[in-house]
Design goal:
4 strands, rod-shaped
Amino acid sequence: MDNIENVLDTTLKNLKDMIDTSIVIGEERVVGEDVIIPVCKVSLGFVSGGGEYGDAKKMKHIPSFPYAGGSSGGCNITPIGFLVVSQSKTKFIRLNGESELEKILGIISHLKCPTNK
């Protein structure tokens, strides 16, 4: 395998390990009779590159030049809302306009929770 292919293969394997569907669609939480599922937007970027370097005149006895390569990546996870599933309906509640805390408190205030007796 070519040197740049090794760098790309390693990068893609590591990205695959980092990104999982449980990041986009979070773990469900049951509150009373409702099921709340967090939903996130995931943005991912990466770059890989490399090349051979050296002075051809000084390295006549070496069949190939030394190789230098590297890769880098980044990930941004943004909560965008909640999917609320109840027996009578399913709705998506977006997290825009208000702060996330205000929106979550608004959701919780509308849920029917069993009282402790």
